[in-house]
Specification:
Elements lengths: L2 H21 L10 E6 L5 H16 L3 E6 L4 H13 L4 E4 L8 H9 L4 E4 L11 E5 L1 H16 L3 E7 L5 H14 L5 E8 L4 H14 L5 E4 L2 H13 L6 E3 L5 H9 L5 E3 L2 H18 L7 E4 L2 E3 L7 E2 L2 E2 L1
Parallel strand pairs: 1-2, 1-3, 3-4, 4-5, 5-11, 6-7, 6-8, 8-9
Antiparallel strand pairs: 10-12, 13-14
Helix pairs in contact: 2-10, 3-4, 5-6, 7-8
Length: 317
């Protein structure tokens, strides 16, 4: 082989390799970065909607995604954060496993240079997460309580089902409910139980409570899955006239409202919040700042038989 031919061959091979590694790629740089999305169990349609919406938006912006569930287990969440750090994720979208238990994990990610964008649940620390975007749970709870009050005619016996005790949102929602309902002497709370956001647990709790007292006019639940469990238990006991409302705005709850089983819910804009988190992550990664305050609160919307057709999966149509 002549020196000229050998040099030409080397040049062609070199350019070919360069094109394979650079020239031939039409994807933006962001598409080669990964956003880790970590939520509670996707068995709950709310958390499933969060994860799917965030993953879809990230893909639209050119990112790869990893989607995992911590199942409200802080230790499992820590492990998933460690995996995200080891895999050099560009950012983490997190619906966390506890306001206190999640602070250390979020801080560890930040110290590793990975910004964390919290959705749905806040942590009890400022300056650790890049963003904390949550529904205005207090405002949503007062909306639901006002509708419950109207439907109850400001009087009657009711049961409250509350969410997981370690979840900040559970406490905020019950406070919103009682700030409205406790002003009315005609309303009497005859039972209060935590059903841990679970439909099956709510069914069991209501089934047990009404065995001792069937004189009940209403159930107000901290989320829709518990409300659906309560409605099913009441129907099975022949008490399907009892007023049941929830909070979340899940597709199943909206279908239940349309059928007349549940009377109302309050939509948490989970899909909107998930999109916002990914958009803010993208802006942070491309500019170094989200351009907005760390803590952001998004108002909820009341859903009744009159407007149920205007909503889809945790979002307005």
């Amino acid at each position: 082989m002549t020196m000229r031919l050998r040099a030409t061959t080397i040049w062609v091979v070199t350019v070919g390799v360069m094109c394979l590694t650079g020239c031939g790629s039409t994807k933006p740089a962001a598409s080669r970065k990964t956003i880790a999305i970590i939520t509670p169990s996707n068995d709950n349609p709310f958390f499933k909607a969060e994860a799917e919406t965030a993953a879809k938006r990230a893909a639209e912006l050119g990112y790869e995604t990893s989607v995992n569930s911590h199942d409200d287990d802080a230790n499992k969440q820590d492990q998933l954060i460690d995996v995200a750090i080891a895999n050099k994720a560009a950012a983490i979208i997190l619906d966390n496993a506890g306001a206190d238990a999640s602070v250390a994990a979020a801080r560890k990610a930040k110290e590793a240079g990975i910004p964390v964008f919290l959705i749905d649940r806040e942590i009890n620390a400022n300056g650790v997460a890049a963003s904390q975007i949550v529904s205005n749970n207090y405002q949503g709870a007062t909306l639901g309580a006002q509708e419950f009050l109207r439907l109850m005619g400001e009087k009657g016996n009711y049961i409250e089902l509350v969410g997981r005790e370690s979840d900040t949102n559970a406490a905020i929602r019950t406070r919103g409910y009682h700030d409205v309902l406790d002003k009315y002497d005609g309303l009497k709370q005859i039972g209060r139980q935590s059903a841990n956001w679970s439909q099956s647990e709510a069914y069991q709790k209501i089934e047990t409570m009404i065995q001792g007292n069937r004189n009940i006019q209403g159930v107000i639940a901290g989320n829709d899955t518990m409300a659906l469990g309560a409605a099913a238990a009441l129907k099975n006991a022949g008490l399907d006239k009892v007023i049941v409302i929830g909070l979340d705005g899940s597709p199943d709850a909206i279908a239940s409202i349309k059928s007349g089983a549940m009377k109302a819910t309050v939509l948490q804009p989970a899909a909107k919040i998930a999109r916002m988190a990914v958009d803010q992550a993208h802006k942070f990664l491309t500019t170094g700042s989200t351009g907005v305050p760390e803590k952001q609160s998004i108002d909820c919307e009341l859903v009744t038989p009159a407007n149920a057709d205007q909503y889809r999966v945790f979002d307005r149509k």
